[in-house]
Amino acid sequence: MLPSRPLLHAAVFALTVLQALASDTFIAAVYEHAVILPDDTDKPVSPDDALALMNKNMDVLEGAIKEAAQQGAHIIVTPEDGIYGWRFTRETIYPYLEDIPDPAVNWIPCTDRTRFAPAPVQERLSCMARNNSIYVVANIGDKKPCNSSDPSCPSDGRYQYNTDVVFDSEGKLVARYHKYNLFMVESQFNYPKEPEAITFDTPFGKFGIFTCFDILFREPAVVLVSELQVDTVLFPTAWMNVLPFLTAVEFHSAWAMGMGVNFLAANTHYTSISMTGSGIYAPDGARAYYYNMKTEDGRLLIAELDSHPRLSPAFLPAVDWSSYALSVERFSPNDHDFKGLIFHDLFTFTELTKPDQNLTVCQKDLCCHLSYKMAGKQENEVYVLGAFDGLHVVEGQYYLQICTLLKCKSTDLDTCGQPVETAETKFEMFSLSGTFGTNYVFPEVLYSGVQLAPGEFEVLKDGRLISKTRPTKPILTVTLFGRWYEKDHLKQDPQSPAFP
Q1: What is the pTM of this model?
Q2: Among 55, 239, 288, 444, which is 20 to 30 Å from 456 by CA?
Q3: Torsions phi, psi for 384 (to 5 deg)
């Protein structure tokens, strides 16, 4: 049976409206927040005192949200721990927690404040979103009562979760995510029983969300992108930078490129423990980023992104990460290899001794090939090519395959792998590849001063990370950071220096 003509017109009109509402691009914002911390977290405070501290932080966040909305932003991400800080025990964080319902309840806290137990933080966040017509992403604490009928119930009768919430532009709660991969110092929170893969749809794409340490593991991070096909990842974080591979701006931009998604990372700003580095990243590079160890100021970033990056002409085709590396013979013998530690992992290194050269270094099944040309080698600087193929076991257990060109801290080869922030040696070109056993490889290029290099490098379909143009600044590191998730549960090699 054919639909009547008026019904057909109505359907066509509805489809036209939907297409008009769906946007090809959107404006994203992230806010790096210098969190106002509580004075004392050794003893519990009253709920009123806890709320007063949270309101001080939300005053700052509200200013950033208003400014972002005035500049046309559709969504803003704020940091992990951004409303109350991170120095807590299980007992002392309790006054800061609220019961956060499942978004399926279809709730706008701003206009329906009495529907559930008092939730002043959710109410205020909802009103910020609604009053400014912007999606707001925040990180707060969820509490869920339990009893002895649940064998996993903590002795104090409640679960406490590190939780991300998303309110849409009408103030409705549309997403709630409980952090699955807690960092080692987060004893105030419980692990959810199962990882949650949280997504929601908007007129400007499909979004997923996870938190900080989650990015190093398969669930839920990789699942959201590879299986659920999100366009954009929202990433509240309290990230402590670790050179040479795990500074926030470096690793988060590399993850966006390696996974082929937009990535909105909002970090806390607390330089005494190396917390800085936020960004708006597209699959082809950073659209805006901030790294500053010299001030204690927050920073708002705003940039335009493609709503559906997989449909963009600039989208990277699928990469066969080992194709080139497996097709070439070893560039150089291993008679000058030496060992060195990077963040507790024992790398195999070989020194770059000439202004231009083809080098190979291998460890276990991973061989790393480098072709390079220096513009002029500084006598007081040493660079090495390094390889690591093994299980990392400090501050978490995860299997890595890494190929890296990096600057040593001094001319003493024993310093290779130690953190270094500045360099003077410029390169004319570089090409780095490796015989990776995993498809999850994240390409990093970091310049002197911990600066990114958007638009100056690319990944070829055969797995080579190459300079597109002559690098404009001295290089700290060029790295292919591989994660082999299937090997995360292997037993540690007794030869490893971190073995107890």
Answers
A1: 0.93
A2: 239
A3: -135, 155
